[in-house]
Specification:
Order of helices and strands: EEHHEEHEE
Helix content: 25-40%
Shape: globular
CATH superfamily: Histidine kinase-like ATPase, C-terminal domain
Largest sheet: 6 strands, antiparallel
Low-confidence stretches: none
Number of helices: 3
CATH topology: Heat Shock Protein 90
CATH class: Alpha Beta
Oligomer: single chain
Radius of gyration: 15 Å
Length: 139
C-alpha cells in the first residue's frame, strides 16, 4: 500500500482516511513554524480535514490508486492552502444548504459549509487532474 509523501510544503496521501492524522500533523507543524495562533490552527485543520475527506470520498471515490494533495504557503499576512483530488469534479453551485429544513437531519453535506464559515476565502476549481480547492485565512 502507498504511504503519504511529504516534500517541502506539500503532502500527498493515498485516498484513505487512514492518513488524516498525517495531514493534520503536517499542517500543524508548518503552521506552528509560521507562528500561527492555536485557534487559527484549529480552524485551518478542521477545514483541511473536511476538504481532504471530500476529496477522498466524493472526488476519488476512495480509489487507493488516486491521491489527495495538500499544499500550504504563507503569503504576507495570510495562509493559503490548496487541496486537490483526482476526481471528475463538481459544481459548487449545486451544493445544497445544510441549514435548509429538508437537509437538517442528513448525515452528509456540511463540509464546504463548515469551510466557508471558518475560512476567509474559498475558491473551487476544476482542473485537468481533478478538483482543486484553495482556502485562505488571515493570520
Amino acid at each position: 500500500m502507498k504511504k503519504p509523501t511529504i516534500v517541502d510544503n506539500t503532502i500527498r496521501i493515498p485516498s484513505s482516511q487512514d492518513y488524516l492524522a498525517d495531514v493534520d500533523g503536517f499542517l500543524e507543524g508548518i503552521l506552528r513554524g509560521y507562528g500561527v495562533d492555536e485557534t487559527v490552527i484549529a480552524d485551518i485543520a478542521i477545514s483541511v480535514t473536511e476538504l481532504v475527506i471530500n476529496g477522498i470520498i466524493h472526488g476519488n471515490k476512495s480509489d487507493p490508486d488516486k491521491e489527495v494533495t495538500v499544499v500550504i504557503s504563507k503569503k504576507n499576512s495570510h495562509i493559503e492552502i490548496s487541496v486537490e483530488d483526482q476526481g471528475t469534479g463538481f459544481n459548487p453551485d449545486e451544493i445544497e444548504s445544510p441549514i435548509d429544513e429538508r437537509n437538517l437531519l442528513k448525515e452528509v453535506g456540511r463540509g464546504v459549509f463548515i469551510v466557508r464559515s471558518l475560512m476567509d476565502k474559498i475558491d473551487i476549481n476544476k482542473t485537468k487532474r481533478g478538483t482543486r480547492i484553495i482556502i485562505s485565512k488571515e493570520i
